[in-house]
Amino acid sequence: MYPGVYCTEHIVYLAVTLLLTVAGLAAVVRSVKSDRTLNVVTKLSAAALLAMICVNRVSVTAAQIRELEGYTWLNLLPYTFCGLASAVLSLTVLFTKQERLNDSRVLHFISYFGIFGSVATVFYPDFLEKQTFWDIRSVSGLVHHSLMLWLILLLFSKKLVRPSLKKWYCYPVGYIFVMFIGLLEIEMLNFREAMNIGQPLVGSLPVITSWYFLFFLSSMVVAAVGFVCDAAGKKTVPENMA
Fold first, then answer.
1. Separation of CA 89 from chain center
2. Above 80 in pLDDT, residue 131?
3. Which of 3, 14, 96, 182 is deepest in the core (most CB within 10 A)?
4. Is there a contact between 17 and 122 (Cβ–Cβ < 8 Å)?
5. Residue ranges of the alpha helices (H) in the chain?
């Protein structure tokens, strides 16, 4: 029997992760004032995320090749929402100058895309229903989702990426592009589960966890966040100018 979601280990991990994330963000917001120091923290976080997603992809692919038919090392290529999000987020932050992060259309898509997936997985890691908590696939999966959440919250809290309705279009366009990648992986590489096309994220909730419903719902959420942030920004301008 596998431990399942909200086993003792998962609850402890969740508590420690939330504590470290909140404490870390508070420390960065209060103590990190120079751009140079912030750049070091951001780049190191992105490098840690990239390393962990690599560990996760290698461990998952090795297990698939060993246990299942039809899998090869080509399956190292990310074919899940969060796997792709972690890889793209880490590489974009690593290779984009700090002062240009808010200009990145990729980040105005992948930051939202990643935060939805990371929160869902950290709180409900369904892979614990199929493997033990201490399996390298489980540990690396939880840690890379946690690091992705940390990095995105860091970008938002230090205003390196600022939500705006003007850049809302990046989200639906990026989401559609991800689904296109999934179709290519299915047709050309025979990745049967790529981007959950044709199957819901949660089998017991086939409609509300289908990709098209999540696309519509998350696009509306991102638009609402952009609208609220724009409105809040306009209200603070007169006060700052006074």
1. 8
2. yes
3. 182
4. yes
5. 8-31, 35-67, 81-94, 105-123, 136-157, 170-189, 211-241
pLDDT surpassing 70 at residue 43: yes
Treating both helix axes as pointing N-terminal to C-terminal, what angle do 81-94 and 105-123 enclose, rounded to 10 degrees? 130
Cα 70 from chain centroid (whole Å): 28
Is 24 a domain residue?
yes
Rounded distance between C-alpha atoms, residue 46 and residue 182, angstroms = 24
pLDDT recorded at residue 71 = 84
Instruction: Look at residue 136 and tell me if it is in a domain.
Output: yes
The model's confidence at residue 236, banded by pLDDT at 50, 70 and 90, is: low
Distance CA(227)–CA(233), nearest Å, equals 10
Contacts of 15 by beta carbon, 8 Å cutoff, 6+ apart: none
User: pLDDT digits over 75-125, tens only?
Assistant: 899 999 999 999 999 999 999 999 999 999 999 999 999 999 999 999 999
Amino acid occupying residue 16: V
Domain span including residue 207: 8-235
Q: 2 in a domain, yes or no?
A: no
Q: Is residue 3 part of a domain?
A: no
Does this model's pTM top 0.90? My answer is yes
Place of tokens 């402890």: 12
